[in-house]
Amino acid sequence: MGDGEKVTDQIDFLTENARTVLERRYLKKDASGKVCESPEHMFRRVAAHIAKAEKNYDKNADIQKIEDQFYRLMAEFRFLPNSPTLMNAGRSLGQLAACFVLPVDDSIDGIFEAVKNAAIIHKSGGGTGFSFSRLRPEKSKVGSTGGVASGPVSFMKIFNTATEQIKQGGTRRGANMAVLRVDHPDIMTFIRCKSNKSELNNFNISVGVTDQFMDAVSQKGDYDLIDPSSGKMAGRLSAEAVYDELVKQAWETGDPGIIFLDEINRFNTLPDIGEMEATNPCGEQPLLPMEACNLGSINLTRFITQKESKSELDYEKLKETIHLAVRFLDNTIDMSRYPIDEIDKTVKANRKIGLGIMGFADLLYMLEIPYDSDEALELAGNIMAFVQKESHKASSDLAKERGSFPNFDRSIFKDNKDPRRNATTTTIAPTGTLSIIAGCSSGIEPAFALSYVRTVMDNDRLIEVNPVFKRFAIEKGFYSDALMEEIAENGTVKENLNVPSDLRSVFVTAHDIKPEYHIKMQAAFQKYTDNAVSKTVNLPHDASPADVRFIYDQAFETKCKGVTIYRDGSKDNQVLSVSKKE
Ligand code: UDP
Questions:
Q1: Active site residue 5
Q2: Whether pLDDT at 8 is above 70
Q3: Which of 2, 290, 443, 561 has its CA 20 to 30 A from that of 449?
Q4: Distance, CA 99 to ligand 1 centroid (Å)?
């Protein structure tokens, strides 16, 4: 720990949930399994480790000063790096990135190399994405044996089993993304591969669709299937029939999602290096094969200021945080130990980072703006345009000190006069755990519920209320335990006459919001995000397949890079639910 540790190391608040998550997974434990690190120590450990990179560029750098800045950035919950950084920085594993994409070549060697690499990455807390599009289709010939190939889906089962067995040394569950191009001959098997809800549970799956395919859908035409091993046409399918099946499966189970390959590659900053064929497990980070990315998220709820008794966003403070966060993430690249040499090389040549935001729904509550309003869409665009612009500027400033990323001359920036330290700077992550640690709403998602009732061991019922809603309820004098319990039961305040009418439209939750607003919000953020945006479009249980199709069409038209839907009750092990009274 640095000498700079003073009373100021005290962090200002930590919810009970945050403490539990940290103790379970993030804080150091001794040989007997007892936690031997406080949250303050954890942030110190991370700050000290990440600050060390400064010495690579300036022998006289004031490391202690930077360490203290990084410490405050995290301890004030203005910014948190992705979970592997919090868990592993300054410890023996030392692997700091959350997202990886691995190539899967069409050979037994290639496939099992990828299985092994994925296992190593999962052990360190990273998630892996793969394109299985290069694998020859089921029943095609295997030259060396004269036998027949078993196809992408059967090989995915091997990856799934390997993931199941790793369990990541008790840190986190292995997560995978499988992408198959829509013109692969096995596409129908792939689309249905998760229809049995107990199969391939360690995978999210996405169909990689092309503009050509979407055109064929709109013209109700057929399209060619291509055998990747020969490059030859291997059949034709009705685009509409494939799209309908995809929609039907997603309606039934949530899988597959879609990624828009052409849209992703229109924003590939390194087209001369390669094509992007897959994303990380939650879809927010398209990457080249053998690339990894460190993510980090700014907690918007920490940037509220009062002006003439009105709440507003403090853009000056946000700017300062963005610049420091870019420096932090760039340092992370140098301080991470990537588990595979080729990944280490690719990451250091492109230096992609993914800075995003969390706490957006809470911010809207604080500013009394309904999530499903034009004002919210406009604010989303303004915030993300600002994050993008300032992060690009921070990356240019860093490049002036440290040099551009080594592949700069092969990138789309090569003719710009400004140098760039990073091939990309922005990504919006789900922040599943980070948002619990920071005590804010996750990513750009609306709140799932305003209050929950938790039954604890001896059947005591504990009411947990969204902190912003609770504050408003107390300030405006309508708080009562009974009301909070009623809201937990109903899952909404929309028609609750005990809540003042102006607040009923502000405190909306995921299921109050029309699905098309979910997509509008995703598109508003995507417009200013270098990489992609993690977003789930929540649909009510009684939504129809036509509703799902409308969402997929909207996502394509509004230039999202992918889309994931979830219809309430369509998975057996749903993570979040409200106990709605019929
Ligand atoms: N991830 C993973 N396993 C998990 C959760 C996340 O491998 O159990 C990876 C995955 O690549 C995902 C990324 O981490 O897309 C970011 O997820 P999230 O923002 O929820 O992670 P956090 O940093 O909040 O833990």
A1: no
A2: no
A3: 561
A4: 8
Same domain, 104 and 186: yes
Which position among 284, 291, 390, 445 bears the catalytic label? Answer: 284
pLDDT at residue 7, as a whole number:
43
Mean pLDDT of the chain, nearest integer? 93
In degrees and rounded to multiples of 5, residue 385 shows phi and psi of -60, -40
222 and 142 assigned to the same domain:
yes
Instruction: List all residues 6 or more positions away from 282 whose beta carbon is below 8 Å from its beta carbon.
Output: 127, 175, 177, 204, 429, 430, 534
Domain finish residue from 434, 459, 479: 434
Distances (CA, A) of 523 to 90, 304, 519, 533, 562: 38, 24, 6, 9, 10
Model pLDDT, residue 4: 43
Closest atom of ligand 1 relative to the 436 alpha carbon: 24
Atom of ligand 1 nearest to the CA of 280: 11
19: left (phi over 0), alpha (psi -120 to 50) or beta: alpha
Does the model's pTM come out above 0.80? yes
Catalytic option among 82, 117, 202, 280: 280
Final residue in a domain of this structure, among 491, 508, 525 = 508
pLDDT of residue 1: 40
For residues 302 and 396, membership in a common domain is answered with yes
Return the ligand 1 atom nearest residue 172 CA.
8
Can you give the residue range of the structural domain that contains 114?
Answer: 99-279
Whether residue 308 lies in the annotated active site = no
User: Is the CB of residue 282 below 6 angstroms from any atom belonging to ligand 1?
Assistant: yes
Domain assignment present for 439: no
Cα three-residue angle 130-446-306, rounded to 5 degrees: 125
ipTM metric: 0.94
Query: How large is the C-alpha radius of gyration of the chain?
Result: 24
User: Do 121 and 77 share a domain, yes or no?
Assistant: no
The predicted structure's pLDDT at residue 572:
63
| Residue 544 covered by a domain | no
CA 447 to ligand 1 centroid distance, Å: 19
- Residue 387 is part of a domain; what is its CATH number? 3.20.70.20
The answer, yes or no, to whether any atom of ligand 1 lies below 6 A from the CB of 500, is no
- Same domain (yes/no): 85, 108: no
Task: Pick the catalytic residue from 282, 293, 440, 560.
Answer: 282
**294 beta partners:** 353
Whether 284 is a known active-site residue: answer yes
